[in-house]
Each structure stands twice: as structure tokens, then as C-alpha cells.
Amino acid sequence: MSSIQRISRWQFVMLLLPIVIATEILPVTDLSAKFAHQRTWLAMIPATLTGIWSIWVMTELARRHPGQSIIQYAMDILGKWGGRAFGVIIILQTFIYTTKVAAEMMTFISMFALPRTPKPMILGLFLFACGVAVWAGIEVIARCAETFIPITITFFLFVFICLLPNMRPAYVRPVLGPDWFETVIQAAIVPSAWYGEFLLMGFLLPFLETSKNVRRMSYYLLTFIGVFVVMIALQSTMVAGPLIEKLTYSYYITARYISLGDFFERIDPLIISIWMYGLVVKEAVCLFVFATCVTQLTGLSDHRLIVMPVTILTMIGCLWMFPNLAELRSFLTYTFPIEGMVVQNILPTFLLAVDMLRRGLDRSPAHA
Amino acid sequence: MRNLRKWLLIFTTICLILPLSGCWDRKEVNELALVMAEAIDLTPDNRVLVSAQVAIPSRVGGAQTGLSGGSGGKSFFMISATGRSVSEADTNVQKKLPRQLYLPHLRIILIGDQMAKTGMMDILDHFGRNPPNRLRTAILVAKDSDAQSLLNTTYPLESLSGEAIRKLERQLTGSNTTLMDFMIQSASEGSDQMASAIDIRPAQESPGTDSSDTGGTNGSTGDSSSQGEESEDTEPAFSFDHCAVFRNLKLVGYLNPDDTMLLEWMLGRLKYTVLTMQVPKTGKTISVDLTQAHRRVRTQVRGNQVSVQYQLSGAAMLLENQTGLDADDPEVLKTFQTAVNAYAVRAAQHCLNTLSKQLDADPTGVGLMIYRQHPYDWERLKDNWHHIFQTVHFTVHANVRIVEGGKSGPPIYEKTHRGIRGEGASGNSKDEEMSSIGGSR
Predict the structure, then answer these.
(1) All structural domains of chain A
(2) Does B128 touch chain A (CB under 8 A)?
(3) What is the pLDDT of residues A272-317, one digit of tens each?
(4) Which CATH number fits the domain that encloses residue B435?
(5) In the β-sheet with B305-321, what is the strand arrangement from edge to edge?
(6) CA-nearest residue of chain B to A268?
């Protein structure tokens, strides 16, 4: 039974960290640079607002309904049918997560690492690994995260240091200029959807050993992620200058640019494998949440029954929804932020509002 | 129990089979042809000619251990083919090769003169799009010749001539113009492009000819590159003097050695160089070793009138002093310093004049500076920037400090003047050097 499994607070943080970082740094920085150009790093700051919002709503809901996941308390709050409808929307959202992450992985790997391998094969292998982790449960994913994510973060910092000689701060200028505010806000919309993915907290919080200080911890985490993402954006901008918006994976391209003393070069295979750590953890978390969603909505006893169908569905969905890179990038730039805003931020807030209203109504007759 | 074991067996088998899927992209080293350099030319019938310099691994290793590449034959071979685009030419090269062309090790691209004049867009797109290509690759232009023949030259010191070209550029300016730099210049607002140009000269120059073919602008014979790579015979050698200036990705001309050096300086790319200039009133020359070259640019926009101030700075050490003056004397050093700065200002003005009046190209990125410093004015100026560029008023200030007088203070060949100059002249030259180095840190 999955409900017996527990994760510690450190593991919880490590599970949430790749949710933004793993996918944000590679495709998202470039997409938001299409709007903000050299001000991309500035755009990353207002983007965290959705993260603050999402964390507040999710922790507040969890405080009111301890030990329950978002699907479970949605049924309590909105009633049986309202809750089910809400659950279906969340399922679709997690389905988007799993397919999106898998597609990001697939396009990147097939472009740079394994160009001749058939895409379904890459995808199948990746999802197989994630599926095994999901089968084993949240504890195993958490332990994976605990091991992998610190390595990933350290390596990204290492890349940053190695690129220092190639950075030209002048590329960030002009910071302000004609239409700077509009462009920054436009550009902030793209990454904002990734911070909204803290929606997944709604499923992870019930597994947490203690719910003490969760909100403060999550805000610390958000601050770290925010700083980290700004750093990555600055790195790409200062190395690639105006090319950042034209390169498909500017982070990878700039990291490939590393050359220390003519012999420390070509660390790109390392980048791919280490980036995969973060992706595996993120995909596993998303798949796990997807499976839990279905389990809880249908009243099944164990999420393991669902793991295999859900994984295969993700694979099919990924191949079907994102036939090419342009499709994926256009989805990430124009569709996902808006759709994510509605599902990740507005719907949970609506849920919280209804909950507050109902409790208020329940309580006032009791006092009277 | 047995059932579990069976399942375990099946599961393990599946797990062991999975890694085999990596074999689609296997690359055995002995199936690869490592491309170290590529020369790209335009044939007279407007086709792209790509010549790949493929390393022969056994000979590359052998050349390092003992004899130079000349003895055991070349350590590379050239293979070339034409096509409508770089990729098609690459594919056609591949048709002649039993091994797979392996591009990630490509370190230098040499562009033929004709190709550069026609335009670089197609080349840049190929190298910016095709995933195996790295943007670290250095890009150079073959001055007044086709790139293929230039790359085909063997070089005594380096087993691969491509490497020789790349190191030549880096050795003299401290960095390479990489594809990334070139593309950034091209994609930036208000900036044209430049790349170093390589040409072939005889390795040994006869006493009759002047090494600097520019006729020494400003009366200087400054030629930072004629340090003569050693060579046993009169084989041709590469020489890096000039730089190619592009406008809208089309080659418009070359800058002479002095201008090249100043352009690098004004771009903030120069790390070190040797300058030689005349000292006023004496008619003799001094040479200084310039390090820590920096520059600052300030722009001012008033209406359509743009003025740009360059502030060049650096630290220099006296290398040679033909004037016979005592370099220990602070006053003399000050004269030298003024001479260096006057030279830098004159050369910079000359370079800027050549660029704005003759070539009408802006590789110094004056437009970019305006965009960075006055983004609102740039909106107004950018549409007819190339008109405004010709009227830009340039001011150059140089602030090079001569911090060290070299190993000797007064001319070392002179007899000491006891009693006249006192302790200064009899000072131990070693101590002098030490103290002056200590003073500069």
C-alpha cells in the first residue's frame, strides 16, 4: 500500500526541486528569451509569483485537510460529482505533465545524443526506468531524488564556474530600454507555468512525515529555485548574447562552449547524463501523481495496478501530441502557460475559496 | 518461490537487453574520420567546395614523439567535394570516405576569399543548426586566396596545419574568433563582423622586402607578427596580420596590421601585443610589450550627431630602446609613455577612419555601444545607422603606462659616466628589474 510510505522533509524538497529546474533550464530559458531578449533573467523574477501563489494555496489546503491528497479533499469540498469533475481535470493536467516532460527529453536526446535511435525506443527506455520507480513507490523516487538532485545542482554550478571566463557582462545591457516592462512581463508568462507545477505538492504533502514548517520550507525552496534559474538565464545570456533566443537549447550550447586551457573541453555527454537525473526524477514524480490520481478517483486499492497503463498511455500521448520539436515549443510557449495558469493556480484557489466559504457557513449556524 | 525466480529471470533478461538499444548510435573510433579543419570555398560556378582535413591518427601521434610531420608524410589528408550547400558538400565528401565524418572535433573553419565576399549566411546557418558542430570552432578567412590550398600547406611545428592556424591567431591576440563570437556580432544590434585573416608568405623573407606590406602607417614599422616561425627550408608559412571586415555578412575588405591590432584592442579582445613606434624629436624607435590591454567606450547622442570616446589603457614594458636615452630617468620614461599613447591614438583614429570612411562597416560595434548605452536613442537611429556611422565623431584617449624599463636602465652598451650621473648609472641592473617589478605589483 502506497499510503504507508513516508518521505522526509529533505526528500520532499528534493522531489520538488527538479520539477522546476529539470525542465525549466533547457527549453524554457530560450522560449522566454524570444520575448525578453537580453532581459530574460529579469523575466525570471516575476515568474516566481505563480509559485508563491501555488505554494500558499496548496499548503493552506493541506493544512485544512491533513493526510489527504487534492483529489480526496476536492470530493469533500465540491461534493461527489464536482470533486470527480475536478479530479478529471487534474488527471488531464498530470497527463500533460508526463507527456510534456517525456517529449522534452525525447527531442533533446534524439537531437544531441542518439540521433539514429528511433524515438519510440528512447522514450520507451526512459519511461521504463521511470515506471519501475513509480511501481516501487514514492519512497524509492524520493531516495532517487535525494541521491541524484544534489549531483545535478552541483554539476550545474560547476558548469557555471567553468563558463565564467567566457561570460561578457556587457551582453546583459541594456537592462532597461524601449518597452522593457512589457517584454519582461510577456516573457515572464512562459516560465510562470513551471512554477505553477507546485500543484504536485497537493499529492506529495500527504506522504510527508511531519507537516511542520512546510510552507516556510517551500518558500525557501522557491527562493533557491528562483535564484538558480536567474543564474542560468544570466549564464546563457552572458555567453551567447543575442543568440540565446535563436538557439534551441541555449544552456546546452553554452555549456558545450566550455574550454579551459584547451584540454578541458567537450563535457557535453556529461551534461546530457546529469540533466537526465533531474528528468528521471521529475517524470517519475509526475507519473506517480498521475497513477495516484487515477487510483484515488476510481477507488482502486493500489496505484501499482495503474502504473503500466499510465506509462504506456504517456508514451502514446507523447508521440501523438508532439510529433516534432516545433509543435512542442509552440505548445510550451503559447498553450501551456495559459492552460497551466487556469488549472494550476485558478482552480485550486477556487477550491480553497469554496472550502473557506463552506466552513464559514457551517460554523456560523453553530455559533448562533 | 520457483515462480518468483522465473519472473526474476525474465525481468533481468529484459533489463540486460535494454542497453543494447544504444547500438543504433554506436561510434567506434576506428570507424570515424576525425575532421580537424574545414576549408569552405566557392567554385566559379557558384557551388560550395568543402575540403575537410582529416587526421590520420597514427601519424598525428608519431609526429609528436619525434620527427616533424614532414618525414613520415603528412599526418592529415585533404578530401573535398562540392555541393549546393555545405551539408550537401559534406555528404559528397562522405561518399569518398569509408569512415564516418566526425564533426565534433572540428576546430577551425577557413573561409575562402570568394566565399566570404559572396556572403556567409549559408555557412553560418549550417554551423548553427547542425547539432554535431560546436560553436567553439574558430573561424578565419583566407586572405586573397582560396581556403583549400591554404589549408593544404604542411607546417613544420604542428602536425595539423589547421591547428597551426588556430594557434597562430591565439598566440598573437590571446583568443580565437569563434563561431559563437562571429554569430553574436552578426546577431547584435548595430554591429558588423570581423574575423582574422590568414595568408601565405614565404617562411624566410629576403632582406630586400619589407615585412610589413602596408607601407607602415604613421611612420611606424609595427608588425606584431613577423616574429618568424622557424622553418628549415623556404616552404611557405602562414602569417596572420590582417583581419577581414564584413558588412552584412559580406566581406568588404581587409585591415592592415596596425589597424587590425587596434581593432582588436578597441573590441576589448586584445590581450597582449608588441608595439613599435617612433619617439618624437629623436627620430628613433622604441618597442614596448603591451599587456592588460583594456578599453572603455562612452557614447553621446545629440540629435543625429553621435560622438564616441574610446579610452584605451594598458601596461607596457620597454623591450627595445634605440634612442639611447636612459630609461631609468622618470622624465625619459614619461616621454616614451607619451610616444606610446600618441601612437595608439593616431593608430586608433586611422583604424576608425578606415572603417567608417573607406569600408563603411562597423565591426567595432559603435552601433551596439549606442544600443547598450542609449537604448531609446537607438530606436531612432538604427534605421539609417550606416549613414550616421559615417558622420560619427570619434575621440580616442590612450592611457598606457610604461611600468617597466626592461632588464637594463640606461643603454647597456654605453660606458658608465662616473661622477656625472652618480648612483643611478652604477645601479645593479638586476636589482633595478626586481624593484621595478615589485613596484608595479
Answers:
(1) 2-359 (1.20.1740.10)
(2) yes
(3) 888 888 899 999 999 999 999 899 888 888 888 889 999 999 999 9
(4) 3.30.300.210
(5) B273-278, B285-302, B305-321, B393-404
(6) B134
